[in-house]
Amino acid sequence: MVIIITILAYFSILLVFSRLTSRRATNDTFYRANRRSPWYMVAFGMIGASISGITFVSVPGMVVKTDMSYLQMCLGFILGYAVVAFVLLPVYYRLNLTTIYSYLQTRLGQRAYKTGASFFLLSKLIGAAVRFYVVCIILQRFVLDQLGVPFVLTVVIMVGLIWLYTRRGGIKTLVWTDSFQTLCMFFALLLIIYHVTSELNLSLGEAVTAIANDSHSRIFIWDDWASKLNFWKMFFSGIFVVIVMTGLDQDMMQKNLTCKTLRDAQKDMCTYGLAFVPVNLLFLSLGILLMMLANKEGIAIPQMTDDLLPMFAATGSLGTLIIVLFTIGIVATSFSSADSAITALTTSWCVDIMERKDDEKLRKRTHLGFALLFVVFILGFKIVNSTSVIDTIYIICSYTYGPLLGLFAFGLFTRWQVKDRAVPYIAIVSPVICFAIETITRQTTGYEFGYELLMVNGLLTFVGLYLCRK
Questions:
Q1: Which domain covers residue 447, as residue numbers?
Q2: Beta-bridge partner residues of 469
Q3: What dihedral angle (degrees, nearest 10) is formed by the CA atoms of 40, 43, 46, 50?
Q4: What CATH number is given to the structural domain containing 202?
Q5: Minimal CA–CA distance to 366: which of 350, 352, 377, 344?
Q6: What phi and psi values does residue 418 have, to the nearest 5 degrees?
Q7: Same domain, 228 and 343
Q8: Are residues 391 and 298 in the same domain?
Q9: Quick one: 243 and 374 in the same domain?
């Protein structure tokens, strides 16, 4: 009952934010927040929006198999955010864009524009629904099943509440609700860490020393070139992951485009880019502390490392307060990513596909339609109920971002025009060729591609556009 009350209280606060920020809301308010958002609010809120509910659960468990090597990628994130801030943002602000894919129309043509927007819609809808499904399953299994709440009701209510507080104010509402949700996420994370260190009978200083001396605190891996965890692979992958999945993603860029000026947007981007290293260091440190606690209490580390945090935080072994904090943390991180995804999908469909930016009725119907699609996709994943299928969907989504990288790189770094009719075919063929290269390489040499597949995919798209240049 405490959990239900906590969740209801949490959403009541979100609805208050929605009410305050959606007065006299127009389509421009929904899409761009009238370009009046304070940069520091956007920066703080983007931390929570970039950390999904899966990240909240998964990153602490990463230390079991990969130590703290994830921080190598986080260091690459910093440089990636600098590229987005000083290469992409000036272009977007100069053209006064509502959606970033409008740039492709200006630079390459109508079909390139529609192709970029379509790839975004496909990958974002499926990817965001999968991530939200995984969070719903975790919350259901560890919290709501004990309360007798059916999964269908969980999904309908959670997606319905997201629709309710974003339907009028859109991105303007999200700038403020994301800041609140980031605050809740930090509050939950820090209190869980404090509680775990207390269970280990450690002071804060002793906990820091214990983490630093633990064998799983290794960060840098220089020697194994074939490993996915090699420093240079993860560092450069981190750069390109940010460029593509932030700088070329309408969902992640829409809030940044609500800042008053380009300078404000650049300050916002660089600020939250730098924040990723300490934030993920906290999550990974929690993972090491949880492993220490499991060892102290003679509890086996779960085979599914994602279950490390829920095993302690959601089962009651650390008390009711930790269950409440875990629920707040996972709801805050999952909602701050899902709400912006639905808003960005609505924006891209109305502006890019339908090209009816000022049609308020279309925007409202589209927003409701994507919320319903979310419910359908999530319940569909539950029916399939296969981890291998979910993993396959994730892989497909990772391939769909490569053509966006190639399209924007060709537009920004060359002056050539392309045969516009060929662009959709290039964008489809490139991921197929990339998949074939990855499969053959793995089978013949044993080398496993990691995130560098994104770079290969983007390069193939770039080469295809070059071959079809006018």
A1: 386-469
A2: 418
A3: -160
A4: 1.20.1730.10
A5: 350
A6: -120, 165
A7: yes
A8: no
A9: yes
Q: Which residues pair with 418 in a beta bridge?
A: 469
For CA atoms 71, 75, 77, 78, give the dihedral sign.
positive
**Residues 406 and 378 grouped into a single domain:** no
Asked if 258 contacts 45 with a C-beta cutoff of 8 angstroms, the reply is no
Cα–Cα distance measured from residue 284 to residue 62, given in angstroms and rounded to the nearest whole number:
7
Total domains in the fold of the chain: 2
- Judgement on whether residues 264 and 253 belong to the same structural domain of the protein: yes
In terms of Cβ atoms closer than 10 Å to its own Cβ (0-12, 13-18, 19+), residue 424 is middle
Q: Tokens representing 363?
A: 């925007």
Is the same domain home to 186 and 197?
A: yes
Q: Are 353 and 398 part of one and the same domain?
A: no
Enter the tokens of residue 202: 């450690």
State the DSSP code for 305: G
Tell me the β-bridge partners of 259: 37
pLDDT tens string 205-233: 999 999 999 999 999 988 777 677 888 88
29 and 162 together in one domain = yes
Residue 397: CB atoms within 10 A of its CB come to 19
C-beta separation of 207 from 282 below 8 A: no
Distance of CA 55 to the CA centre of its chain: 8
Token representation of residue 429: 């063929």
Q: Which amino acid is at 404?
A: L
Name the β-bridge partners of 37: 259
Q: Report the number of secondary-structure helices (H) and strands (E) in the chain.
A: 20, 0
Per residue in 99-149, pLDDT tens?
999 999 999 999 999 999 999 998 899 888 888 887 788 778 777 787 788
Q: What is the DSSP string of 102-123?
A: HHHHHHT-HHHHHHHHHHHHHH
Distances (CA, A) of 222 to 77, 261, 451: 19, 41, 17
pTM for this one? 0.88
